[in-house]
Write a structure and sequence with these properties.
single chain, mainly alpha, Butyryl-CoA Dehydrogenase, subunit A, domain 2, Butyryl-CoA Dehydrogenase, subunit A, domain 3, two-stranded antiparallel sheet, two-stranded antiparallel ribbon, 6% strand
Length: 374
């Protein structure tokens, strides 16, 4: 077999062997030697497996010999969107629980009131801010995952070759963003959920801590979020000279045009913040494309903040698009506009700082050996 990972083959090793007539045969020489003690995901046991203690296990080759890594990456690539949705699911549950607790827990009084009784903590502006941040970030991550799923479906089912090709490129671009951004959001929203609960969030019986613990693995497995960022910068951004990125940015710019043209005062500064974010994303993308050829380590140093910049810009534009659709289709469009505005003014607004981190932060990262290895 070739040396290293190129020589790996993938095998299926069953618990029981199967007889020629299809019935279960003898127990195979494989077993679990212990259950890992994990930070979270306790309902899904992770075990250490041992094979060969009784003479040798029987396994069946999956795919071609020495093509095991290719098989594994097929599985992981398809699982990445599922893990992104997992981040969204944890975030949604953490938000729902925090919202219910904030409506029930009484502490202090609402500003400006003179009541002798305590009010529910949801009346306090900082609690409202945390809850809005939880809800808007969850909604943005969900929209990105849905857009990724649509692109995957079209890439697999479209009959027109040109449409299929564009959808394939869009799905490839969005997948690392859906996985990494959504699971980062899952971690952040679960953490805010603990904060909303206050001291009770630190107590296991409320369940808030479980969301926090369970969310942590999502940014690690099926390719760490750092790997997703590297994939986005080194493979997806540079594909066809950045064509997939420029095409998406053009679509997002059209959404911002419609927000600006609506002249709806409820949007306030949403259009301005999204336009600034698109400009930052465009400049950062061009800088990274240039550095990939001339100084790849500089590009890699900015990969993670670049993915965050991409996700917060994309999510902000998608929430604005939902708000525009709601204006045309539903009577109560205020909640959609409020959500889009909050995200734009509190999350997407950080785009300029992320752009500066991408472009200006490489020297410090690449020169860190003097500190880290001292």
């Amino acid at each position: 077999a070739p040396a290293g990972t190129r020589g790996i083959s993938l095998f299926l090793v069953p618990k029981f062997l199967v007889n020629a007539d299809g019935s279960l045969g003898a127990r195979n020489d494989i077993g679990a030697s212990g259950i890992e003690h994990k930070l979270g995901m306790h309902a899904s046991p992770t075990c250490t497996m041992v094979m060969g203690d009784a003479g040798g296990a029987i396994g069946y080759l999956v795919g071609e010999e020495n093509r095991g890594m290719a098989c594994m990456f097929t599985m992981m690539n398809q699982a990445r969107l599922g893990v992104g949705i997992e981040g969204v699911g944890i975030a949604e549950r953490a938000y729902q629980q925090a919202l219910a607790y904030a409506q029930d827990r009484k502490q202090g009084r609402a500003p400006g009131t003179k009541s002798d009784t305590s009010d529910a903590i949801i009346v306090h502006p900082d609690v409202k801010r945390m809850l809005l941040q939880m809800r808007s970030m969850t909604a943005a991550a969900r929209s990105i995952c849905y857009a990724t799923a649509v692109a995957i479906d079209v890439s697999e089912r479209a009959e027109n070759a040109e449409i299929q090709g564009k959808a394939t490129a869009r799905a490839a671009l969005l997948t690392p963003i859906a996985k990494a951004f959504s699971t980062d959001i899952g971690n952040e929203v679960a953490s805010l959920g603990v904060q909303v609960h206050g001291g009770m969030g630190f107590i296991e019986e409320t369940g808030a801590a479980q969301h926090f613990r369970d969310a942590r693995i999502t940014s690690i497995y099926e390719g760490t979020n750092g790997i997703q960022s590297i994939d986005l910068v080194t493979r997806k951004l540079g594909a066809n000279g950045g064509e997939s990125v420029w095409s998406l940015l053009e679509e997002l710019s059209g959404i911002v045009d419609r927000v600006e043209a609506s002249n709806d005062p409820a949007f306030r500064t949403t259009g301005i913040r999204l336009r600034d974010a698109l400009d930052s994303l465009g400049r950062a993308s061009r800088w990274l494309l240039e550095k990939l050829g001339s100084a790849p380590n500089d590009a890699l140093a900015g990969a993670t903040p670049y993915l965050r910049l991409f996700g917060s810009t994309l999510g902000g534009c998608m929430l604005a698009n939902e708000a525009l659709a709601a204006k045309d289709q539903v009577d109560d469009d205020k909640r959609y506009i409020t959500l889009a505005r909050f995200f734009a003014e509190n999350v997407t607004v950080q785009s300029s700082s992320l752009e500066r981190t991408v472009i200006d932060g490489a020297d410090a990262v690449n020169g860190a050996d003097a500190i880290l290895l001292a």
